[in-house]
């Protein structure tokens, strides 16, 4: 005569299945937290890069070259400025005493990098900036 209830093997199999399900749920939660952290850090890096681009194009005197430094909060920055084109602009007629202007188009790239959870990550933004100044001799 068989008694009602579960055998030890059935109980063990049920525990293994429940353990696997909990492990998968836990892993999914951890992956979600990691993805949220990466998204937050990426969003912060983009904002920092946009701020640095704006400061370079609207306030700083641009010169070709590369610079880098620490931006705080675990972020490092690198800027690269290249001269894309230069044009001399004549103003007025030949009788006017206005000196010509030199317009220079710069290609500017800002890269922010930070240590990610598993791999280092980076964000790069690029734009063009126009600088106009009196044309020098030569």
Task: Specify the biggest β-sheet.
Answer: 4 strands, antiparallel
For the CA atoms, what is the radius of gyration? 30 Å
Portion in strands: 35-45%
Number of separate strands: 4
Order of adjacent strands in the largest pleated sheet? 1-2-3-4
> What is the count of helical runs?
1
How much helical structure, as a percent, in the residues?
25-40%
End-to-end gap: 110 Å
Mean pLDDT: 88
The tally of structural domains comes to 1
The best one-word shape is rod-shaped
The secondary-structure class comes to: alpha+beta
Show unreliable segments.
none
Order of helices and strands: HEEEE
What are the key terms here?
four-stranded antiparallel beta sheet, 4 strands, 37% helix
Question: What does this entry look like structurally?
Answer:
With 138 residues, the chain is of the alpha+beta class. Helices cover 37% and strands 37% of the residues. The chain has one helix at residues 8-58, and strands at 65-72, 75-89, 101-114, 121-134. A hairpin with a 2-residue loop joins strand 1 and strand 2 (75-89). The mean pLDDT is 88.
Tell me the layout of helices and strands.
Blueprint (H helix, E strand, L loop, with lengths): L7 H51 L6 E8 L2 E15 L11 E14 L6 E14 L4
Antiparallel strand pairs: 1-2, 2-3, 3-4
Give the gist of this structure.
This protein has one helix spanning 8-58; strands at residues 65-72, 75-89, 101-114, 121-134. By secondary structure, the protein is of the alpha+beta class.
